[in-house]
Amino acid sequence: MIKWILIAAFVASALYVHFRGRVRHRFSRQITDHSTFMAPINVLMYAFSRVPTTPFVDPDLFPELAPLRARWREVRDEALRLRELEKIKASEGYNDVGFNSFFRRGWKRFYLKWYDEAHPSASTLCPVTTALLREIPTVKAAMFAELPPGGHLHPHRDPFAGSLRLHIGLQTPNDDGCWIDVDGTRYSWRDGESVMFDETYIHTARNDTQEQRVILFCDVERPLRYRWTQAVNRWVGRHFVAAAASPNETGDRTGALNRAFGRFYALRLRAKELRKRNKALYYVLKWALLLALVVLIIRL
């Protein structure tokens, strides 16, 4: 009986995540999307959130972010210095599971921190920004992110609702041709301006201008109503999200998930080759494996 209650709760949570918002994935894609597997935890985060669960959230609700937002010019100086040194770049291997698909579309990044103390490379190259971040423990992850002319990110939703995403424009085209769309509403970045949104809504981005877009990208802990829900959020972040840490340079930490990702991706490449050769067989095997997983769960 308990097993069926848990299965029903999972299915209900997954359906809620799918139908939440105006923009949705195809149902067949949502079934295998990573946000589906996190749905029960995410529904808990939404239910006990102390800030609105709307696609965009007012960053003024997070007063601890004020020093970071106010000193954006100093942060920009460090980001532009990194660009000159060509340190804002794509991953050099299969060690960034969270953003691996973005690199093919021109997106680049330099990690400042990831659910831990700043990377050694960030502390050395960006002392002002990392010092500011160190004073704001609710910022769980931060990076400089670059989207070049013609770059774009496909529609996606992030897997975990324990944080909200803050973007601060550092060097942007200041043009409506460079934008992010969250659940059907667009925002165009501007130098020195901040925008915050819920990354578990489907979002996409494009830069159709001839200028680079460089932003400070932060994941800020979602405020929750009770200590126990906050404890759940931090436990998931510490034990699962932190495992996706990706290095900038040798000496930076690589999380367990990214250490495994390189081996997994070799299988993924073989699957892609099979899809090119025989698409029908690829989908038969994909859905057969998914069905087998469902049967296994039911029989446990």
Structural features, described:
The chain crosses the membrane at residues 280-298. One of its GO terms (molecular function) is dioxygenase activity. Belongs to the aspartyl/asparaginyl beta-hydroxylase family. There is one protein chain. The chain has 300 residues and is α+β, with helices and mostly antiparallel strands. It has 2 domains: 56-254, B-lactam Antibiotic, Isopenicillin N Synthase, Chain (Jelly Rolls); 266-300, no CATH class. Helices cover 42% and strands 20% of the residues. It has helices spanning 2-19, 27-32, 34-37, 39-47, 66-70, 72-84, 120-125, 127-134, 227-239, 256-277, 279-299, and strands at 56-57, 108-114, 139-147, 152-156, 163-171, 178-182, 185-188, 194-197, 203-207, 213-221. The strands form 2 sheets. A 6-stranded antiparallel β-sheet has the order 1-8-5-10-3-2. Strand 6 (178-182) and strand 7 (185-188) form a beta hairpin. 34% of the residues are buried. The model has no long low-confidence stretch (mean pLDDT 89).
Number of separate helices: 11
Mean pLDDT: 89
How many domains comprise the coordinates?
A: 2
Please, what is the CATH homologous superfamily of the largest domain?
A: B-lactam Antibiotic, Isopenicillin N Synthase, Chain
User: Strand share of the residues?
Assistant: 15-25%
Just give the CATH class of the largest domain.
Mainly Beta
C-alpha geometry: globular
What is the CATH fold-level name of the largest domain? Jelly Rolls
Computed structural class: alpha+beta
Q: Into which percent range does the helicity of residues fall?
A: 40-55%
Query: What is the CA–CA distance across the termini?
Result: 12 Å
Radius of gyration, taken over Cα atoms and rounded to an integer in Å: 20 Å
Domain Aspartyl/asparaginy/proline hydroxylase: 70-223
Family: Belongs to the aspartyl/asparaginyl beta-hydroxylase family.
GO molecular function: dioxygenase activity
Keywords: Dioxygenase, Membrane, Oxidoreductase, Transmembrane, Transmembrane helix
